[in-house]
Amino acid sequence: MCMADTFLKLDHVKKYFGGVKALKGVSLEVKCGEIHCLAGENGCGKSTLIKVISGAHNATEGEIYIEGKRIDKLTPIDSIRMGIQVIYQDFAVFPNLSVAENIAMNHALMTGAKKMKWKEARELALHAMEQIGAHMDPDILVERLSVANKQMVAICRAIINDAKLLILDEPTTALTANEVEKLNIIIRNLKEKGMAIVIVNHKLDEIYRIADRLTILRNGENVATGMIEEFDRARFVKCLTGHEVADDIYRPEYFEEEIVKVENLTKKGAFENVNFTLRKGDVLGITGLLGSGRGEIGDALFGLAPAETGTITLNGKKIEIRSVQDAMKYKIGYVPEDRLTQGLFMDRSICQNTVAASIGRYMEKTGLDHKKMKEVTWQWIKTIGCAASSSEAMMRTLSGGNAQKMVIAKWLNTEPSLLILNGPTVGVDVGSKADIHTILHELAKKGIGIMIISDDLNELIHNCNKLIIMKNGQTSGIIETGDMSEAELTGLLNSGM
Fold it and tell me: What is the pTM of this model?
């Protein structure tokens, strides 16, 4: 492992892209045998900093030291040879190759091998998996693995290349709570072996469970560094955003007005006898472990995988939902968990995305009313607080938080009676997260039914006044959250209900 107490030291590193100052003098020290979390909102400079450390970008100014030695120029191959391994959000694995081939690939490249030695690759893979406690068939194709196991493959590949510094970029974004804890165990084991670890994350509850030290970036500068116990939630949020963000628990006033009533909703193999009533002002949360049936309820109500029996009453009228077209006809909107592939057209404009679910209202005899479409989109950009320069900008130019706001805007433009949100703030920074929650509260108060499907327990407690816990397709019934703590909710989630 590391040959010095401090593996990496950056001293006033700057990186400019033309006139854009991505890094404005960042200093960072990562010690061997520590877990150092790097936090910051989208656009703060985290990705640029990682690319400087990995050699993908050359620093404009500043000094870089690795194991006490000043490095004047760092290339990607130099970085790897010095023991730096980066695992990005997409893991950079080859889906059409086996687990063993993926794990041994970089080793083969580093040793200059001309061809893959299958027996050696298999042995390397088994040895790496044993080191981190992973259990996978080395011969299975990576495309058949879960997200968590693909991540394990990437970690195995890193450690067989004698990694001394492991950088994980948003490693928990697509993981369940149980998978996050398993990952944390692996990371702690690597730390105990003396590896320096940097985790890019902005979820304070996850950071508290794993980090030794924390550095927060904002606008290309590091605004705070210290031991994790030096940061309470208020300080963390203020350093991250530059201002205080309200963290109030949503508890609406009581209304009699019933928006949605679901009775004995059943889909064999997914869930059965689901019952709930959603009134004006309510925000209903649905949670449960992976495979519990939580997501399938949303799919059924939006017609993606319709329920087989049961009744749905919307605004006093019984309705049948057999397809997405039925759901949209009854003004039900659905914000999917994966906004990149299911919620947005990334290579289309913000305007085209905003009107996608309501395109019919802009049709005229001569074609689409583009002027009206742009006006409506710009109004939504302002209303929902999206940081966009133009309605014609490509969707992929937006940060995760702003893109998520526009997914919500797309459905709000349909004037929904019920809005179902699956993982509404996954991969969203703290500031945008608070904005989205405020938007949902206001919608509920106006009489739009709001359902949040999530495994983020803190999000559910702070933003839902009613909660359903799913387990093996069975429901807990309605739970009034009241003053429930996250620990109490965790206990219910893991109990037999």
Answer: 0.67
